[in-house]
Structure formats: structure tokens, C-alpha cells
Amino acid sequence: MRFKTALLLLLLVGIGYGIRHFSLGKSKDGFQATLIQLDTARITAMLITPPGGQPDIALRREANGWLVATAQHHLPVLPEVISQLLGRLREVRIREIATQGRRDWAQYGVDERQGVRVRIYQERQLLEDFIVGTDATETQAFVRISGQEEVYVTDNALFRAVRQEFNPVRSRLLLQLPATLKNLTLEWRRPDTLFIMQQMDDSWQLNAQAIEASLAVNWLHAIRQLHGAVFADDFDEVSGEKFLYHTLTIHSQVLKEPLVVQCYRDTTRTLPFVLHSNQNPRAFFATDSAGLFQQLFLPPFLPALAPKEAQE
């Protein structure tokens, strides 16, 4: 009997030690809990408020993708940016509680002045509202649910995903050609001249005169995908119509509509050429006489510009 009692006591002590050990382990690095879990397919809009009084960044889901909006612009968002952001928001897991008091919010970057506030909507319904911050070294991320005092330690990748600026999330695409182009016709319209280049099976003609096929093929390969570097957000398309300088129009059976790239020239600007295409109609890009302008409007098979015309 005594042996059974001693064995039972030893077993209870062992169980108690195991529970305590397991509990301590879970309260440290092994602790994992889900703080936020979202069905990202339901998300129709996100409002990101950067720290320091910067303007809000509004993201809205449309039929053809996501748009980013500020007071002045509504522009397409890069798909990879949205994919990364939604991936981080799908499930926000926490490792431990950093603090339970508002006096420590600033230390973890989750007060209203330092943190990035994220509001997530399905239509008009607010799904989540939280603030993400980081410490001085940016080695850890912290999250606080709006209206609550607790601050939690989470994956630093969440902070990187929500700390967005306006320009980096915008598409810089100027022109993208399909992989296969057939029966091409290209038109360059200069102020007083029109050049037409046509693909005739494996040969090419410029204004009905044969040109070396390799020049056309190599040029098309070089411009297959072009991106702008500098946004010209201050350019007014309506009032700037008087600055229209060159136009490139590309026709092909595989294009749903002609691809049109317009070039405006305003010599009062630091970068005098402003380019715009109907493939990214909300974006205007500034460039100099080299770069995109030279690539698109001065290909090697076209005559050079007259000296006066070429001056900036």
C-alpha cells in the first residue's frame, strides 16, 4: 500500500513538473497565437496611415486589380506589392505580449505618432483596425489593436509590408508588347513628318522603302517592356496638349487596340520630355533627350532630328 502511495505521489510530482515546464516553454520563444486572421478574398479596401502626419494611402480592389489613391491620384498598384501585403495580413501571429500599458507604446512604435495604422474593409464594414510599429533597431515588429492597450511581438515582415509609400506601389509600366507580334504597322508622327514602318512577312519597309530587317527586329526586342523612372505628376494632360511633340502608334492583330505612346516636350522642365501610353493611362513619366525618348522616338532606322528640333 505504501509502495502504491509513493508511486502515485511520484507520478503526480512528475506530471506537475511536466506541466510547469511546458507552460514556461510556451510563455517564451515557443508561444504562438493568432491575433488577426482574414479571408483576403473578402477584402475590398485598405487604408494605411503612415507615421508623422503623412497623407493616407487608400488601396481599393477593382475588377482589373487594385488601385492606390491619394487626394490627387488614382493609379494601378503593382501586383507583387498587393500579393505581399495580403499574404502578411492573411494571418498575423504573435510570439508574446510586449506590454500591457499605454505608457510603453512609444517604446514599441505603436502610438498614433510613430505607428502605421492599418484599417481593412469589406465594402463599408471595418474588418480590422490595428497599429504596427517597430523598435529603434527595426529588428522586431509590434502590433496593437486600435482601442486596446496590449502590445504584441510579431514578425518584422508585417512592418515592412505595411510601411508603404505612394510611389513605390505604383506601376511604372510605360509599354509592354505581346510575346508574338504579327503583321505589325508602326507610325511615328513628328511635328511635320509621318514615318510608317510595316512588317511584310520576314521583311520590313519604311515609307515603302526596304530597310534591314535586323534593325527592326533588334529594336522591337529592346523595347518589348519599358518602365518609367521619374513620375511627372505635375504634368496636366489637358493644358499640356499644346506640348504634344511626337506620337508612336503600334498596330498588330494580337493587340486588342493600337498601342499609343505620346511624347510631350516642355523646355521649361528640368526633364523636358513627358511620356504617356494608353497601357498605363494614369501615369506620366519625365525623361531627358536620351533614355526612353531616344529608345522609342529615335530608332536607328529613322532619320535623325533636325539640329534645331533636337535642341532641348
What does this structure look like?
- The protein has 6 helices and 21 strands.
- Helix 2 crosses helix 3.
- The protein is an alpha+beta fold and 312 residues long.
- The strands form 3 sheets. The protein has a 10-stranded antiparallel β-sheet with strand order 1-6-10-9-8-7-2-3-4-5. A 9-stranded antiparallel β-sheet has the order 15-14-13-12-18-19-20-21-17. Strands 11-16 form a two-stranded antiparallel ribbon.
- The chain has helices at 2-27, 79-89, 156-162, 213-222, 291-297, 307-310, and strands at residues 33-37, 45-49, 57-62, 65-69, 74-76, 91-99, 116-122, 125-134, 141-145, 151-154, 173-176, 185-189, 194-200, 203-206, 209-211, 225-227, 230-231, 244-251, 259-265, 273-277, 285-287.
- Strand 14 and strand 15 (209-211) form a beta hairpin.
- Residues 1-30 have low confidence and may be disordered.
- The radius of gyration is 29 Å and the shape is elongated.
- The chain is 21% helix and 35% strand.
DSSP summary: helix tally: 6
- What structural class results from the helix and strand content? alpha+beta
Main sheet properties? 10 strands, antiparallel
Task: Name the average pLDDT.
Answer: 82
Measured on Cα atoms, how large is the radius of gyration?
29 Å
> What gap, in angstroms, lies between the N and C termini?
105 Å
The stretches of 5 or more residues where confidence is low (pLDDT under 50) are 1-30
Shape: elongated
Share of β-strand residues: 35-45%
What's the β-strand tally? 21
* SSE ordering: HEEEEEHEEEEEHEEEEEHEEEEEEHH
